[in-house]
Specification:
HslJ-like_sf, eight-stranded antiparallel β-barrel, 146 residues, globular, DUF306_Meta_HslJ, single chain, Lipocalin, alpha+beta, META domain-containing protein, Hsp_HslJ-like
């Protein structure tokens, strides 16, 4: 086999190999989904509200998803958050989410986040490099990986 032919086969092989989902693609294997989603995510939009331009008192809301151990932790903009998360029937399902009890100027955003996540289920997909969670009502929570 010539060097040129070998190089061509190698390039085709590498370009066909996927390390993760592309835009709009759902992750099919349950184990793969758990690994892909188990990381820290910054919330950029919630219910149509852009959070990237908001000046938070402390830091923007961030969730650490651990689907392998079915745990969620993070920061809601004011308080630390913790709860449960599972992957079932093609949906990301959040259990009850608890938070510490500090008050700050960003508490309304945190309360909205808690209401939108606690005991809710979402379809998931990767869109333009962001994790998009879509509730049956059409409500979306958009996050970017950290």
């Amino acid at each position: 086999m010539t060097m040129r032919k070998t190089l061509f086969i190698l390039v085709v092989f590498i370009s066909c190999r996927s390390t993760g989902p592309v835009d709009g693609q759902k992750m099919e294997s349950k184990g793969n989904v758990k690994k892909q989603l188990s990381r820290s995510w910054s919330i950029t939009s919630m219910g149509g509200r852009n959070l990237e331009s908001h000046k938070f008192t402390y830091k923007p809301p961030e969730l650490k998803l651990d689907l392998i151990n079915e745990k969620l932790s993070g920061f809601g903009g004011c308080n630390r958050l913790s709860g449960t998360i599972t992957l079932k029937d093609g949906l990301v399902k959040f259990g009850a989410i608890s938070s510490s009890r500090m008050i700050c100027s960003d508490i309304d955003i945190e309360q909205q986040l808690l209401e939108q996540l606690s005991n809710k289920s979402y379809q998931y997909e990767i869109r333009r490099g962001h994790l998009v969670l879509t509730e049956a009502s059409g409500n979306e929570i958009i996050m970017k990986g950290n």
